[in-house]
């Protein structure tokens, strides 16, 4: 919640050129009738001049331009979310809709990335219409599903420290279609049991990339219950090193359309047909070949200075050790 309110403060929904103020007072004055037409554009097609703006006020068009012009000091950075831009536009055209707690009713997407978030608290339940929640690159270890809006369709938790799905699966959002858990600390087979239709009946897309899943057949048996699953990402896990990895998944999940960002075509399905029924062909081992082309930053032993004949100087020897960490 703290990160959410800081995010809203950064958007400046109540500050110029958004919100209510002297720059647009007459347009939202409760004691006067709303101005007709589009103020500040001069004469309308019928030749009738629109009401002139009071001194010190700006038209909605000018205020919106201040938000969108990349050279404006009030413009959001290019990588901001479309939701943030829409909120600021709304704060110009209908500022009463984003004042105070009213903003909870209009937010459908929330993106809090790289803000050091460690916990999803109950404050998120105030977002009654939230459909997309992106909390990538934070420090979340476990997430309590009771604190997630039931309206969620997208939950992205990439690059966190999630190591257990039990709390997330206690009361998971029933409409969730995408679950992103890439680059976390999940290990199989203890977590495999939480990846079934019993918890995610409407899941279409699942990202489990770069975790520590090792049991290919065990994971496949759980994923096979996800009848609506069409997109799956498992690359970066130890099980992806198994020679029959892709073939087993393609044959075991006939409704899957994309695996590891690669489309599954009819030829590939035909090529791997029946592989899932031959577990004896699946070798539970992997071979990794590492080639070192060049090592920099250490002295070359062959370039040592030759000692002069009769010199009593000590001989210095060097030894090196190269360590690989997987």
Give a structural overview.
The model is unreliable at 31-50 (pLDDT under 50). With 326 residues, the protein is an alpha/beta fold. Helix 2 (60-68) runs antiparallel to helix 3 and helix 4 (216-223) runs parallel beside helix 5. It has helices at residues 2-11, 60-68, 82-93, 216-223, 245-252, 266-271; strands at 109-111, 132-134, 154-156, 178-180, 205-207, 231-233, 258-259, 262-263. It has a domain at 1-19 and 61-107. The chain contains six helices and eight strands, in the order H-H-H-E-E-E-E-E-H-E-H-E-E-H. An eight-stranded mixed β-sheet has the order 1-2-3-4-5-6-7-8, covered by helices on one side. Helix 4 (216-223) links the parallel strand 5 (205-207) and strand 6 (231-233).
What's this model, at a glance?
The protein is of the alpha/beta class and 326 residues long.
- What is the count of β-strands? 8
What is the molecular shape?
extended
N-to-C span: 37 Å
Give helix % range.
Answer: 10-25%
Keywords: Leucine-rich repeat, Repeat
InterPro entries: Leu-rich_rpt, Leu-rich_rpt_typical-subtyp, LRR_dom_sf
Region (Disordered): 29-55
GO cellular component, one term: cytoplasm
Keywords:
326 residues; alpha/beta; 8-stranded mixed beta sheet; 6 helices
């Amino acid at each position: 919640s703290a990160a959410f309110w800081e995010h809203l403060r950064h958007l400046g929904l109540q500050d110029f050129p958004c919100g209510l103020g002297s720059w647009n007072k007459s347009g939202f004055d409760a004691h006067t009738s709303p101005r007709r037409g589009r103020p500040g554009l001069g004469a309308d097609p019928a030749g009738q001049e629109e009401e002139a703006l009071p001194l010190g006020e700006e038209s909605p068009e000018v205020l919106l331009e201040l938000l969108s012009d990349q050279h404006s000091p009030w413009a959001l950075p290019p990588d901001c979310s479309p939701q943030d831009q829409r909120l600021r536009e709304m704060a110009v055209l209908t500022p009463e809709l984003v004042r105070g707690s009213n903003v909870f009713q209009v937010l459908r997407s929330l993106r809090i990335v790289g803000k050091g978030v460690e916990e999803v608290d109950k404050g998120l339940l105030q977002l009654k219409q939230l459909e997309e929640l992106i909390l990538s690159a934070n420090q979340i270890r476990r997430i309590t599903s009771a604190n997630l809006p039931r309206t969620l369709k997208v939950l992205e938790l990439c690059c966190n420290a999630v190591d257990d799905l039990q709390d997330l699966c206690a009361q998971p959002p029933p409409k969730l279609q995408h679950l992103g858990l890439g680059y976390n600390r999940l290990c199989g087979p203890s977590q495999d049991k939480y990846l079934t239709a019993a918890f995610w009946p409407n899941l279409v897309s699942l990202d489990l990339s770069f975790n520590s899943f090792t049991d290919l057949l065990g994971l496949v048996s759980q994923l096979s219950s996800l009848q609506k699953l069409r997109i799956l990402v498992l690359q970066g896990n130890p099980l992806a090193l198994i020679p029959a990895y892709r073939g087993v998944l393609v044959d075991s999940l006939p409704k899957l359309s994309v695996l590891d960002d690669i489309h599954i075509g009819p030829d590939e399905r035909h090529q791997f047909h029946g592989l899932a029924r031959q577990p004896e062909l699946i070798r539970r081992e992997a071979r990794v070949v590492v080639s070192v082309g060049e090592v920099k930053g250490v002295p070359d032993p062959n370039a040592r200075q030759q000692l002069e004949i009769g010199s009593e100087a000590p001989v210095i020897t060097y030894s090196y050790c190269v360590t690989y960490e997987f």
